[in-house]
Automatic annotation (TrEMBL):
Keywords: Oxidoreductase. This is Malate/L-lactate dehydrogenase. Belongs to the LDH2/MDH2 oxidoreductase family. It comes from Apiosordaria backusii. PANTHER family: MALATE DEHYDROGENASE, OXIDOREDUCTASE-RELATED. One of its GO terms (molecular function) is oxidoreductase activity. InterPro entries: Mal/L-sulf/L-lact_DH-like_ah (IPR043144), Mal/L-sulf/L-lact_DH-like_NADP (IPR043143), Mal/L-sulfo/L-lacto_DH-like_sf (IPR036111), Malate/L-lactate_DH-like (IPR003767).
Length: 452
């Protein structure tokens, strides 16, 4: 489970275990080679593999605690089973002092901080709260690529005059089940929020509601809009287009957006809803920006550099490089689908015409496509929720492939991460906190409250 911390565990410092690691023996196995090869920046120090063999129960328990700690604190921790060893063998992040030190921020403090910066930039209180909600939810769900660290680029766009902080989205009802929102070049968050709110209202009466949003900007993580529908007991589709980053399959020109396809359905009350939110690329471009911010390498299969060569350097990937579509023509096909439904249909930019959130040259002109569907159209709500529960248990209870500890439902890892971060706070590295405080300095607002 590379890159996924195990949620729901107690937080402990990484450093306290460093000395204990030296008690364990070195194992130059295939897992170590695989990990160090994939994440050279993280595994700059020696990698240790902990062999969980026929040893005393106390040692097993110690190893389990260490593994849990590593899973929480090292973003690239992995566990694997050895194919040529009857005992489970764990690969442990061998950073030996190179692990990033995280600073934690309470989600309510993060929300207030974002609101204060936005209000100081001319955004209304209501819209500032909606933008902050979308960004902080991304951080809570572990989607840091689309969290509050996006703020400096958004504020730079306001200062450059290409994003209107005072714009209010306007709504036009087209048919009883179809509406259009014009974001008027304001933030994408309030426009998408209004769009989904309207779609939900239409679906309550007519079973379905469809909203097209035009002249918008980046709306961050799609899952927060899917969640808006899930919280109202609705199924949903949430599409957007975005600035060119991907070639069409077979091409080398940046043409299509890394435009996420997202959808959701409510489960039983209090259980795990279905929330799928995925970019059509191998990884979201925001993850490359995050690696750049944190001084980390990226896996070699995410992007090409300007010369068309695979690269593990986020700077080279962003500087004239392209993202790689997931599953070749299928990924680029999904990116085209997002452009058809969000760009062509809405009247917004399309075919490479959208301006990205890090580009200060002109308005984004992003399009979104939002659909809400009432789940009890063909059966009672209770029956629908119970069928979703059956699907959930069937999926997570299915037979596991070798080396997999647990099967998750789409959106489940993010929900478990959110539950953990609501209690423990959101982890940031110092450079990210500094970048946010620099904005606070410019706008003369308070610094972000942190705890170690
Ligand atoms: N607004 C924009 O223009 C824009 C553009 C690109 C990406 N994004 C956002 O970037 C975020 C990250 O996208 P991504 O494609 O890198 O996401 P990802 O690869 O981390 O996850 C994609 C989906 O797979 C599921 N998933 C991941 N690991 C799983 C596992 N082990 N078992 C079961 N399900 C699992 C997740 O729940 C998620 O629904 C998304 O929130 C997306 O909305 C936004």
């Amino acid at each position: 489970m590379v890159g996924q911390p195990v949620p729901g565990m107690a937080s402990k410092g990484f450093g306290r275990w460093k000395k204990l690691w030296w008690l364990l023996y070195w194992y130059p196995g295939f897992v170590a080679r695989n990990l160090t090869h994939r994440f050279p920046a993280i595994f700059s120090g020696p990698t240790i593999l902990v062999k969980r063999g026929p040893c005393a129960t106390a040692v097993h328990s110690l190893l389990d605690t260490m593994i849990t700690t590593c899973q929480e604190t090292c973003p690239f921790f992995t566990t694997q089973l050895s194919s040529h060893n009857p005992c489970p063998v764990y690969g442990v992040a061998g950073t030996m002092g190179g692990a990033p030190e995280y600073i934690h921020v309470n989600h309510k403090d993060a929300q207030l901080f974002v609101v204060s910066l936005l209000i100081a930039s001319g955004v209304s209180l209501q819209n500032a709260e909606t933008v902050a909600l979308g960004l902080v939810q991304a951080d809570l769900r572990g989607v840091e690529s689309h969290g509050i660290n996006r703020l400096p680029s958004y504020l730079a766009r306001i200062r450059s005059g290409v994003l209107n902080p005072k714009a209010e989205p306007t709504l036009t009802q087209v048919t009883p089940v179809v509406a259009q929102v014009d974001a008027n070049n304001g933030f994408g968050f309030p426009a998408a929020h209004l769009g989904m709110k309207t779609a939900i209202e239409m679906a309550k009466t007519f079973g379905i509601g469809m909203v097209s949003v035009k002249h918008s900007n980046h709306f961050g993580m799609s899952a927060w809009i899917v969640k808006q529908a899930v919280d109202a007991g609705m199924m949903s589709l949430v599409f957007t287009n975005s600035s060119p980053a991907l070639p069409a399959w077979g091409g080398k020109e940046k043409l299509l957006g890394v435009s996420p396809i997202a959808c959701g359905a409510p489960g039983r009350e209090g259980s795990i809803p279905f929330i799928l939110d995925m970019a059509p690329s191998v990884a979201a471009r925001g993850k490359i920006h995050k690696a750049k911010r944190r001084g980390e390498k990226i896996p070699g299969d995410w992007a090409l550099d300007a010369e068309g060569r695979p690269t593990d350097d986020p700077v080279k990937a962003l500087d004239g490089g392209v993202m790689l579509p997931m599953s070749g023509p299928k990924g680029s096909g999904l990116a085209i689908m997002m452009d058809v439904f969000s760009g062509v249909l809405s009247g917004s930019a399309f075919a490479g015409g959208v301006t990205g959130p890090y580009d200060m040259s002109k308005p984004g002109d992003v399009g979104h496509f939002l659909v809400a569907i009432k789940p009890d159209l063909f059966m009672s709500m209770d029956e629908f929720r119970s069928r979703m529960e059956t699907l959930y248990h069937r999926v997570i209870g299915s037979e596991k492939m070798e080396g997999v500890e647990r099967i998750y439902f789409p959106g489940e890892i993010e929900l478990l991460t959110e539950r953990k971060r609501l209690v423990e706070g959101i982890p940031f590295v110092q450079a990210e906190i500094d970048a946010l405080n620099k904005e606070a300095e410019i706008l003369k607002t308070g610094r972000i409250p942190v705890s170690l």
